[in-house]
């Protein structure tokens, strides 16, 4: 995830920024769930945290997944093979993009579709590339290697385990799992916002039909003691989805992760899915109020390795998203 435009918004600024919010003094998610006519409810599968961790570990073992690298190419082929193994209809969305520094990036969005014939669909997304350099304010070694265990691999690992579960149990709704490329090759320190999320921008211009009704982005969802506050653009563009997911997380006992408070607005892949593709999309992301960068200390450093990953956090992220899919399909979310 890039050195994003990260703003910890005051109540006044968020009132101006977030048209959907009418009471900035209170929490962003209220405890009144909208009524929905129930359909046939299927059991929500158990999210296997050990399996998700193994998927994170395999990505890290390939090395940094920087666009144009051998590790990137090997990871791409492995991701495609796993999604096919899990019963998805998989397609490659190859594209060439020009990075802010002039580098030509040969990138690939990987699109895995479950029940592609269904009109009613949900989008689940994460980025699978890694930052090409360590440029966190906390990193004092400019040559440090960013392995991206949390920033990239954790979200993908969670989605691979969800894909494995979907291959064994049909929720009754169409699901598109999209692994977005070239997210983390942007210009830091106040650079052009559009230099980030290049895969999300390409996908947003070329969304396969049928178009998903809403989306959930996972980014940095593996670290111990993670907290997923309500991200600003999520609340602005997809407040109903935020409410559904955060209420569900609370009912499942995961409120210590999905905290009912406002975080900052992060220019992540979901920003482009919302503004370019018109898909209301939320970002489940670990961002902090107690660090200089606004993120965890290992963000964009050489410390983003497997030892920062906590299986319990992977489960908290994955079980809630998996339940969201099944509950939405049943009309009980």
From TrEMBL:
List, alphabetically, the InterPro entries matched: Peptidase_M28 (IPR007484), QC/QCL (IPR040234)
This chain belongs to the protein called Glutamine cyclotransferase
Signal peptide location in the record? 1-25
**PANTHER family registered for this protein in UniProt:** GLUTAMINYL-PEPTIDE CYCLOTRANSFERASE (PTHR12283), GLUTAMINYL-PEPTIDE CYCLOTRANSFERASE-RELATED (PTHR12283:SF6)
The UniProt entry, under Gene3D superfamilies, shows: Zn peptidases
The UniProt keywords, alphabetically, are: Acyltransferase, Signal, Transferase
Protein species of origin: Neolewinella marina
| Residue intervals of the Peptidase M28 domain | 109-324
In alphabetical order, the GO MF annotations are:
glutaminyl-peptide cyclotransferase activity; zinc ion binding
């Amino acid at each position: 995830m890039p050195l994003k435009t990260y703003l910890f918004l005051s109540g006044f600024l968020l009132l101006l920024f977030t048209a959907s919010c009418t009471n900035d003094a209170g929490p962003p998610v209220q405890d009144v769930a909208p009524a929905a006519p129930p359909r046939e409810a299927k059991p929500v599968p158990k999210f296997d945290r050990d399996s998700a961790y193994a998927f994170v570990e395999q990505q890290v073992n390939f090395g940094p997944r920087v666009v144009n690298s051998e590790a990137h190419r090997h990871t791409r082929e492995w991701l495609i093979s796993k999604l096919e193994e899990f019963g998805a209809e998989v397609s490659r969305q190859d594209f060439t993009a020009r990075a802010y520094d002039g580098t030509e990036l040969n990138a690939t969005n990987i699109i895995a579709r479950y029940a592609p014939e269904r009109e009613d669909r949900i989008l689940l997304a994460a980025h699978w590339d890694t930052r090409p350099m360590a440029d966190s304010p906390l990193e004092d070694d400019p040559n440090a290697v960013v392995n991206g265990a949390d920033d990239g691999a954790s979200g993908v690992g969670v989605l691979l385990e969800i894909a494995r579960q979907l291959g064994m149990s049909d929720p009754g709704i169409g699901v598109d799992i999209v692994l977005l490329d070239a997210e983390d090759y942007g210009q830091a320190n106040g650079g052009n916002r559009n230099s980030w999320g290049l895969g999300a921008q390409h996908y947003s211009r070329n969304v396969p039909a049928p178009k998903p009704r809403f989306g959930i982005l996972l980014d940095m969802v593996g670290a111990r003691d993670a907290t997923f506050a309500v991200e600003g653009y999520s609340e602005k563009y997809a407040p109903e989805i935020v409410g559904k997911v955060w209420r569900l997380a609370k009912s499942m006992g995961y409120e210590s992760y999905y905290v009912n408070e406002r975080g900052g607005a992060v220019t992540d892949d979901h920003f482009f899915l919302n503004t370019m593709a018109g898909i209301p999309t939320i970002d489940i992301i670990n961002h902090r109020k107690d660090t200089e960068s606004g993120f965890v200390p290992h963000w964009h450093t050489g410390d983003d390795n497997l030892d920062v990953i906590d299986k319990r956090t992977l489960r908290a992220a994955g079980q809630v998203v998996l339940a969201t899919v099944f509950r939405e399909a049943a009309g009980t979310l």
